[in-house]
Amino acid sequence: MTFEATAFYILAVILIWAALKVVTSGNVTHAVFALGLAFVAVAGLFLLAGADFLAAAQVLIYVGAVTTMIVFAIMLSNIGEMDGDDARSTAWRRLGEGLLSPRLGPAPVITAAAFAVFLYTVYSQASWTLAGRAERLAPTTASIGEELFTTFVVPFEIASVVLLVALVGAIVLTQKEERS
Amino acid sequence: MITLTHYLVVAAILFALGLYGALMRTNAIRILMSIELMLNAVNLNLVAFSRYITPDTARGQIFTIFVLTVAASEAAVGLAIILQLARRWTEIDVRKFNRLKW
Description:
The structure holds two protein chains of two kinds. By secondary structure, chain A is an all-alpha fold.
């Protein structure tokens, strides 16, 4: 196997294992760290696909900001202790007996499986014109920046407004209520 | 030799796992994490298409940047809501939040 194939399979196994842990693990804190691992594995896959800028952004934003934010939220409140249905049995027993959701019965597993089958059908029907083995674009930072500030400048500005609104909204939402 | 199909299969598995988690868990934080997993699967698809179908432009990667932005905003607002729920009702089980107003 080539280096690319070896790295891809290792990263894919790590990614799917970590995603499984996020969904099935009994402890929210463990799930958050598994989520961080999954994000790192996705960043590795981005690197393999030649998206170097995105790999760096993925590590900075997802691992550095989102995961840390969830960890802080768990530490600042007692969310971790009030896990409800989670801390009951081990992951694999949960996966077996927990295929039935406490809310929706067997609907989640049926939906997920149906969606996977749907994706398989779409992918097997679709026809793409693959570009031949073109050399990678990397480093991509310059071309991403160029396109972002020329062709995609309007979506870019809208995205910054969305970010601003979200952050102001988060601050307003977490303020302590004043007694009136 | 890694082809487009490899990436698509991994992303489809990731998305199905995230969908399953978001539907089946009752802990609001866990649902948020499952949604992040699904967004990552979408990003993986976009990057793979960008690599194998239009390798000479970075357009697919720019779409990924927008998804990243929305995911970050979603995490910030979602966590703020969850913190406020936990502060008010000392509970983040979504089964309990079936009313808009008390």
